[in-house]
Specification:
Number of helices: 9
Mean pLDDT: 95
CATH topology: TIM Barrel
Largest sheet: 12 strands, mixed
Structural class: alpha/beta
Helix content: 25-40%
CATH class: Alpha Beta
Low-confidence stretches: none
Number of strands: 12
Bound molecules: iron/sulfur cluster
Length: 334
């Protein structure tokens, strides 16, 4: 092991091996906790990293211990030929896992090609099964397409599919049990995520957070006591549970009421090539300019290391010093 390929440790000893790559800031729906309903200013194409630039950066990250990738957006499936990028990334020897987070609106069209390209896992955003609630959240009437997308992914042979549901008090309590049943019946893993202050209209408030504990209570009321599942990956954001009887898995991600920043292993690359050391980072490191200026790779690695070294202990939500990042969720990627 030489100096140049030492793993990415921050000042708290957290090792960063998980890179989330936003491949676009564009999306085909308008979830209110993520982006504005109208007049969204998207990045011009020329400012977005090309697949080859993403591949070059990932090869650098792989030299310093990154082995897990997640493709995000906006909505990654709106980026043309995304399967070509998956093949490029799967071709990097150190990369052992490539996953994608999608809203599944067009997944029925892409599922087979993604599977053939070698995509390992799918996280599918689904906050509601009730049409009106789904419409209220996404501002697009596409629930049927999402459900078709989920079926198509299972038919294409994806076995590691997770449903991600953002939980919002006063809006999605009535969705908790229908989603749990839906996932349980289809042998899909389900995760509930607490609502976070990254919405563009800045309507987030503490009292709108439906906590992980409250969700667990709702589910246990119907399904009986949940059994904590062994925590195989200490850095994973979710706390997983098994249903009584051992079949079916449910995860709770509670960044607001029980933060898990202490074991965070995640870095984020925005669509235009800015590196963020945290979802709530107030600073960014521009890797795209370095790439396009032909800067030597060791100097780009130095920037990556500086970004990691500057990482704060956690997000500070609920504390006086908390400052919302300028970017909204669709400009960062989940
Ligand atoms: S808020 Fe930041 S530090 Fe905390 S888990 Fe998320 S990305 Fe990691």
């Amino acid at each position: 092991m030489t100096m140049t390929n030492l793993p990415l440790l921050d000042s708290f000893g957290r090792r960063h091996n998980n890179l989330r790559i936003s491949v676009t800031d564009r999306c085909n729906i308008r979830c209110f906790y993520c982006m504005p309903a109208e007049q969204v200013k998207f990045l011009p194409r020329a400012e977005i990293l090309t697949f080859e630039e993403i591949e070059r950066l990932v090869r650098l990250f792989a030299q310093v211990g990154v082995d897990k990738l997640r493709l995000t957006g906006g909505e990654p499936l709106v980026r043309t030929d995304i399967d070509r990028l998956i093949r490029l990334l799967k071709g990097i020897p150190q990369i052992r896992d490539v996953a994608m987070t999608t809203n599944a609106v067009t997944l029925a069209r892409h599922a087979e090609r993604l599977k053939l390209a070698g995509l390992d896992r799918l996280n599918i955003s689904l906050d509601a099964l009730n049409h009106d609630t789904f419409l209220k959240i996404t501002r697009r009437d596409v629930l049927d397409q999402v459900l078709e997308g989920i079926s198509a992914a299972q038919e294409a042979g994806f076995t590691r599919i997770r449903l991600n549901a953002v939980a919002i008090k006063g809006l999605t309590e009535a969705e908790v049990l229908p989603l749990a049943r839906f996932a349980w019946e289809r042998n899909l893993e389900l995760r509930f995520i607490e609502y976070m202050p990254l919405d563009s209209e800045q309507n987030w408030a503490d009292e709108k957070v439906l906590s992980g504990a409250a969700i667990r209570e709702l589910v246990e009321h119907e399904f009986g006591p949940l059994v904590p599942a062994p925590r195989t990956d200490p850095a994973q954001p979710a706390f997983d549970y098994l249903y009584a009887g051992g079949r079916g898995r449910l995860g709770l991600i509670h960044p607001v009421t029980a933060p898990f920043c202490g074991t965070c292993n995640r870095l984020r690359l925005t669509a235009e090539g800015k590196l963020r050391n945290c979802l709530f980072s107030l600073e960014e490191w521009d890797l795209r300019s370095l790439l396009r200026q032909g800067v030597a790779e060791p100097l780009i690695l130095e920037q990556i290391r500086t970004c990691v070294a500057e990482k704060r202990p956690g997000h500070l939500i609920g504390q006086q010093q908390f400052e919302r990042p300028e970017r909204t969720m669709h400009q960062i990627g989940g």
